[in-house]
Amino acid sequence: MAVNDKSDDKEKQTHRRGFGVSTVYETLRNEIIELKLAPGSPIDEVQLSERFELSRTPIREALVKLSAEGLITTLTNRATIVSQIDFLGLPEFFDALTLMYRVTTRLAAARHQPDDVTRILAMQKSFETAVRERDVLAMIATNRDFHAAIAVAGRNRHYTELFTRLLDEGRRILRLYYSSFNDVLPRQYVTEHEDMIQAIIERDTDKADRIALEHADQIVQQIRSYIAADTRQSVSLTL
Length: 239
Known about the structure:
The chain has helices at 2-33, 45-52, 56-68, 90-111, 114-133, 136-153, 157-169, 171-179, 187-201, 205-231, and strands spanning 42-43, 72-74, 80-82. The radius of gyration is 21 Å and the shape is globular. It has a 3-stranded antiparallel beta sheet with strand order 1-3-2. It is built from 10 helices and 3 strands; from the N terminus they run αβααββααααααα. Helices cover 74% and strands 3% of the residues.
């Protein structure tokens, strides 16, 4: 009986640790993506242990997952911080993102199967719900899933893997995009997704390409304008 009690205790501890890892990971991930934890902010294991009332082990496991996603970085002095956003590298990022929007949507129009369309429509419905409810984290997640589903329909795993990585890397940039609208995304940009789906269904590769390019361009221009406006400072000149 004593052996069973020890086994039960070990199982409960493992369960609690697993639950703790998920809680820490999801909480910090959301705070980083929403920019509540600013780029460059220090990540202190002791403070996190106190905050979540957990031992250092589940904290470290959660940080490993965040590091794998590129959301936190360990510096040469072993300090851990929220990963910086590479604003200087944004032009290259936008070029790659735009290309992936175009090629995956074009291939989906050419190669999709009926099940792909069903999946894409389901992702779009989830995105519309998130937009309607102004749930920014859900908007970011469902937008990612929508475009990833289109990539899968194009049946090129290399494009799918690259595009998914770019979408994941761009989550904080997309947060800035939604912030530029005060988290109320205009209906016309939801409709762009619908137009994309229709072009895919019609197997019109040129139309799919054009819509994807227009979709990418408006996102890039909106983000660029928002960043430029946000970084300007008012200077008072006294003559």
